[in-house]
Specification:
The chain has one domain (30-106): Arc Repressor Mutant, subunit A, CATH 1.10.10.10. The protein contains six helices and three strands, in the order ααβααββαα. The chain has helices spanning 13-27, 31-41, 49-56, 60-70, 85-94, 97-103; strands at 47-48, 74-77, 80-83. The longest helix has 15 residues, at 13-27. The chain is globular.
């Protein structure tokens, strides 16, 4: 099992909040797709890029771009990724993943 790590072994919470705000502003009304991707990565299950594309309806480019932005918080097992367990609760709180479950039926 290969685990990705960045030069920052523990990214600061403020960096995550800033990333959330930046992504929310950049994605506008489609931010729910970014939240869906992030929340999928916090499910404690490993996800391949193909699964993330299918579950979020984002393009391959957008998924890989977002994974690049999330790199400091990701771990990898072969061709699958997830948010490192130590950061999953923080991501769920910042990206409001509890609300996503109730919104799941509202997305096209």
């Amino acid at each position: 099992m290969e685990h990705l790590s960045s030069s920052k072994s523990h990214p600061p919470e403020t960096g995550l909040v800033e990333l959330h705000l930046e992504l929310a502003q950049a994605w506008g009304i489609d931010f729910h797709r970014v939240r869906a991707l992030v929340c999928q990565l916090t499910s404690n299950s490993w996800c391949s890029v193909s699964e993330l594309i299918a579950r979020t309806l984002l393009s391959h480019w957008n998924v890989t771009h977002l994974l690049g932005r999330l790199h400091p918080w990701l771990e990898r097992d072969q061709d699958c990724v997830r948010i490192r367990v130590a950061f999953q609760d923080l991501f769920r709180a910042v990206f409001d993943c509890s609300r996503l479950v109730s919104e799941r039926f509202l997305t096209p």
